[in-house]
């Protein structure tokens, strides 16, 4: 068998394994679609997509991998990469911690005295990292965020305006958090403008395939394996994946690392990205969520793939 035929065969094997995991989990109807943002409650709960992007740029897919959904908290590690590149590690972490919170994504726990949020993956911390992205204006800051997310995905992404409006009307808890942090000095940009940028960032539309490519770009040291373009440095990717490993799954982070063994980030629309450093990116999508706000089928699929292929990094 020549190298081309061998590659085709490997590709068939990976795709059929993704299909097996998909078929096994598609009947799992545990969990519930997020409804605290009204627009998210309308999602089709049966959607399920699994995509894997290798560092050679090849993408393997099973199920609904081309259906768009809002990125939500899956944006947080990628916007954190931009804040790190703009400000440097020390300046970013003067304002936001690097410790798992052991609490839910919308926790109001802030460091006594400084008002620093625990880490860049919970909402409070992500609002701070969004505020640390450089920009001449609010529009410019969001344009830079959208360009960074698009570079990670390898295509031009756009905002879902209906979800954005829904986020804004149901964002009191995030506004409350931002005012607390502004009062304490950990957030220094204007509260409402910063939240507008954060809500926009959460409302960007992606597919499971997109987030697989985004995860693969992190795993590839910052070069998008599909476009061949450098998005960020290998050092930044190392920092981002470290924070994903320790804090990406919120109050499930420890058990996640035990069972899936990969840096990952969940979002409330049902997206889940995982990166296997030097190996591949995984993009999962299914809207029903568990109690920590992560996709039930996404978590189960990642755990099955990780165990089957022995992917645990630790
Ligand atoms: O901040 C929020 O409420 C949402 N727009 C994003 C939260 C999210 O995805 C949490 N992740 N599981």
From TrEMBL:
<feature type="binding site">
    <location>
        <position position="123"/>
    </location>
    <ligand>
        <name>substrate</name>
    </ligand>
</feature>
<protein>
    <recommendedName>
        <fullName>Glutaminase</fullName>
        <ecNumber>3.5.1.2</ecNumber>
    </recommendedName>
</protein>
<comment type="similarity">
    <text>Belongs to the glutaminase family.</text>
</comment>
<feature type="binding site">
    <location>
        <position position="167"/>
    </location>
    <ligand>
        <name>substrate</name>
    </ligand>
</feature>
<feature type="binding site">
    <location>
        <position position="73"/>
    </location>
    <ligand>
        <name>substrate</name>
    </ligand>
</feature>
<feature type="binding site">
    <location>
        <position position="268"/>
    </location>
    <ligand>
        <name>substrate</name>
    </ligand>
</feature>
<feature type="binding site">
    <location>
        <position position="250"/>
    </location>
    <ligand>
        <name>substrate</name>
    </ligand>
</feature>
<dbReference type="GO" id="GO:0006543">
    <property type="term" value="P:L-glutamine catabolic process"/>
</dbReference>
<feature type="binding site">
    <location>
        <position position="198"/>
    </location>
    <ligand>
        <name>substrate</name>
    </ligand>
</feature>
<keyword id="KW-0007">Acetylation</keyword>
<feature type="binding site">
    <location>
        <position position="174"/>
    </location>
    <ligand>
        <name>substrate</name>
    </ligand>
</feature>
<dbReference type="GO" id="GO:0004359">
    <property type="term" value="F:glutaminase activity"/>
</dbReference>
<dbReference type="GO" id="GO:0006537">
    <property type="term" value="P:glutamate biosynthetic process"/>
</dbReference>
<keyword id="KW-0378">Hydrolase</keyword>
<comment type="subunit">
    <text>Homotetramer.</text>
</comment>
């Amino acid at each position: 068998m020549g190298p081309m035929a061998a590659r085709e065969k490997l590709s068939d094997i990976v795709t059929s394994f993704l299909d097996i995991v998909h078929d096994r989990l598609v009947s799992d109807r545990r969990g519930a679609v997020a409804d605290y943002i009204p627009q998210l409650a309308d999602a089709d709960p049966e959607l399920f997509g699994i995509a894997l992007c290798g560092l050679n740029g090849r993408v393997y897919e099973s199920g609904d991998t081309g259906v768009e959904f809002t990125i939500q908290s899956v944006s947080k590690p990628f916007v954190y990469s931009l804040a790190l590149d703009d400000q440097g590690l020390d300046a970013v972490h003067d304002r936001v911690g690097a410790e798992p919170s052991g609490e839910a994504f919308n926790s109001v726990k802030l460091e006594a005295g400084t008002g620093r949020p625990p880490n860049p993956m919970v909402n409070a911390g992500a609002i701070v990292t969004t505020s640390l992205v450089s920009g001449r204006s609010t529009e410019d800051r969001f344009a830079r965020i959208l360009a960074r997310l698009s570079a990670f995905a390898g295509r031009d992404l756009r905002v879902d305006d209906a979800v954005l409006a829904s986020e804004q009307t149901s964002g009191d808890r995030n506004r409350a958090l931002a005012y607390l942090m502004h009062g304490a000095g950990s957030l220094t940009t204007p509260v409402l403008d910063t939240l507008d940028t954060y809500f926009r960032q959460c409302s960007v539309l992606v597919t499971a395939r997109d987030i697989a490519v985004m995860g693969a770009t992190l795993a590839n040291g910052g070069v998008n394996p599909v476009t061949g373009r450098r998005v960020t440095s290998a050092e930044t990717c190392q920092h981002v994946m470290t924070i994903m490993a320790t804090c990406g799954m919120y109050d499930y982070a420890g058990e996640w690392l035990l069972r899936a063994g990969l840096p990952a980030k969940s979002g409330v629309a049902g997206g889940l990205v995982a990166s296997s450093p030097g190996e591949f990116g995984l993009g999962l999508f299914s809207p029903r969520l568990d109690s920590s706000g992560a996709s039930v089928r996404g978590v189960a699929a990642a755990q099955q793939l990780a165990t089957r292929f022995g992917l645990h990094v630790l």
